[in-house]
Design brief:
Elements: H1 5-18, H2 24-36, E1 46-52, E2 55-62, E3 64-66, E4 69-70, E5 77-78, H3 83-96, H4 123-127, H5 143-146, H6 149-157, H7 178-191, H8 195-207, E6 213-214, H9 235-244, H10 264-271, H11 276-291, H12 309-314, H13 324-331, H14 344-348, E7 357-358, H15 360-371, E8 375-376, E9 379-380, H16 384-390, E10 413-414, E11 424-427, E12 432-435, E13 439-442, E14 448-452, E15 457-463, H17 474-489
Length: about 500
């Protein structure tokens, strides 16, 4: 077992700033899971935070965020599209304050946006990914332009509507990049503030997280953001720090995230996870549906398979349903030159749909407010009527970009959980109403944050593993584990 004294010490120290744990069993179990799920990727690591009923009940961390910095729950992290949930929450606060309306055309607030037949597009259609504004390749861009906020607002205002390929098969088309500039532009239009100032004024200052949540990292904070191991200053420096913290030595660098062959230790770590038996049964059931015949229906499904990373991930994302043309149109610039999102210049730029930077603590706090139906420490940030709208699914069918039924709400997708389901009534400010499944947002790298209003529960997981949501299983394993632990305690 890895020596984890440094992470435990850091977590205990951080506890003084965010609250007192109410369940040491949950705390210890999640710390062990993070250690186990470091797998073969040390010294890279991660942090998670869990809130319930407005209080931090667990937080854990493991590994190195930078060559000179161990992970802790307040470590700043690049979380890619997980930041979309922050942006959406800011919109909901503005709707609650009557500055925005989901069903008025965006051009009502931002006149230039109405070009190219976009004059009737509403916030509701954009936030539920039904506006056909998903293709970044429909705009003539290079990487330098993407870093220029004002230029990008002009480009987005003038962009055309583009339907996805085979549009008749889909109910939505995930706007992986365009979304952030659309929402950021309308936020600036109605607040008369730069997006960073509006975020701070309306959301992060009221929640007490103003210095740990950014769209555009201040220059003096850039050196505090977690990096990929391959971007650490030097292999020698990583090795020295890894030895001091008793972490395994770093592996060779890779240029882009790939699905690595699973080691024996990784497969064993998976088999020890609390959700593994559920995954095995789900995989067996899927195989049975695909393979059952009159002759073998008694046997199919009785033998539970050994599962690797790809097989587990496919339980959540069916890659066979991925429309590669739509996926590339949403995520890749027409120039096809990759953007280095960890570069200091990119971190300081405002790319809200993709470069959200926040700590696990900050994300969990935002979703703790949402888990309490818009209330935080006695203050209403989002009123009851607005909360009902933002949490109600707008679409339930297949997405044209993501290979899944995303069940888009207004700015959030369903919580990805197959071992724990929820369908319930929740108490809002004065009344009860039937609430849909829990919701949140994940990032390209597999970071995630979500809330569960029934249990007043929120969860955030951030990391610097060199992986993507389509070739990793950590966010799913941790989500299932948290729900299992909470359900056991109830």
């Amino acid at each position: 077992m890895k020596n984890n004294n440094e992470s435990i010490s850091t977590t205990t120290h951080q506890n003084a700033t965010v609250g007192t744990y109410t369940d040491n069993h949950i705390q210890r179990r999640l710390q062990q899971l993070l250690t186990d799920l470091q797998l073969d990727d040390a010294p890279a690591g991660c942090a998670l935070v869990v809130y319930q009923a407005g209080k931090c009940i667990a937080q854990a961390s493991v590994g190195l965020a930078r060559a000179d910095l161990s992970w802790n729950p307040d470590t700043l992290s690049l979380n890619f599209s997980t930041g979309k949930g922050i942006l959406a929450t800011l919109v909901h606060v503005l709707v609650s304050q009557k500055k925005l309306d989901y069903d008025l055309p965006i051009a009502h607030y931002w006149l230039a946006f109405g070009a190219q037949n976009k004059e009737k597009i509403t916030l509701r259609s954009v936030m539920s990914h039904q506006a056909d504004l998903f293709s970044i390749q429909s705009i003539d861009l290079d990487n330098e332009t993407v870093l220029d906020w004002n230029m990008m607002l002009e480009k987005i205002a003038a962009m055309p509507v583009t339907a996805p390929e085979q549009a008749e098969l889909y109910d939505s088309a995930y706007s992986a990049l365009v979304y952030g500039w659309v929402l950021g532009g309308v936020i600036e239009a109605v607040t008369a503030m730069p997006l960073a100032q509006a975020l701070r004024h309306y959301l992060t200052e009221p929640l007490g997280i103003a210095n740990s949540c950014y769209f555009g990292v201040p220059e003096n904070q850039v050196d505090k953001v977690a990096r990929l191991v391959k971007n650490f200053e030097s292999v020698e420096e990583v090795s020295e720090n890894a030895q001091e913290s008793s972490q395994p030595q770093p592996r060779s660098r890779r240029h882009k995230p790939v699905l690595k062959p699973d080691s024996v230790d990784t497969l064993q770590a998976y088999s020890d996870l609390p959700s593994y038996a559920c995954w095995q049964q789900q995989a067996a059931n899927q195989y049975a549906i695909q393979s059952v015949t009159a002759d073998n229906k008694e046997q199919v499904g009785k033998v539970l398979p050994t599962l690797d990373t790809a097989q587990i991930n496919r339980l959540y994302f069916d890659n066979s349903q991925l429309n590669l043309k739509n996926y590339k149109a949403a995520l890749l610039l027409a120039s096809k030159e990759p953007i280095d999102y960890y570069h200091p210049q990119t971190l300081q730029a405002t790319i809200p749909a993709a470069s959200g930077v926040a700590s696990a603590h900050a994300l969990a706090t935002i979703y703790a407010m949402l888990a309490n139906c818009g209330m935080w420490q006695g203050k209403t940030l989002i009123d009851e009527a607005t909360f009902k709208q933002l949490s109600t699914p707008q679409v339930t069918g297949m997405d044209a970009v993501m290979p899944a039924h995303m069940d888009w709400r207004l700015g959030y997708h369903r919580r990805f959980s197959i071992c724990n389901s929820d369908n319930f009534e929740v108490n809002t400010h004065d009344t009860k109403f039937h609430a849909p499944q829990s919701f949140g947002h994940m990032g390209y790298n597999g970071s995630v944050a979500w809330c569960d209003p029934e249990r007043q529960l929120s969860f955030a997981f951030v990391h610097n593993f060199d992986v993507t949501m389509l070739n990793d299983i950590r966010q799913f394993a941790l989500t299932e584990a948290v729900l299992d632990l909470i359900n056991t305690e109830i």
